[in-house]
Amino acid sequence: MNLLLYMAPMAALILLPFTLYIEGNVASITIEKARGDPYIVFLLIGNSTVAYLVNLTNFLVTKHTSALTLQVLGNAKAAVAAAVSILIFRNPQLQSWVWCFTARQRRDLRSRLTEG
User: Fold this and answer.
1) Is 27:20 a contact under the CB 8 Å cutoff?
2) What residue stretches are annotated with the Sugar phosphate transporter domain (predicted)?
3) pTM over the 0.70 mark
């Protein structure tokens, strides 16, 4: 996990100046909102923790299996998210999208398997 240890701080250092420039006074707005509602601090810390755990999981999956497994899991995650969305929101347009999505993913997977 040395790669994650070295990569995460570097990514933060590279992105922080761009974020402050593009977002403007986001730090003062966040502090102001945190004073009004301390729950936002909990949400920000929780969001950061989940993002770190997602990165850690991706590195662990790649380390113990392969990059292809990570790609297949990502495709499965997208398909499950679309299916759950259909079940919750009953969106008929999304049902046709899921069919096209899964057909495209199968085609992409077949082409990757024949390449390597």
Assistant:
1) yes
2) 1-92
3) no
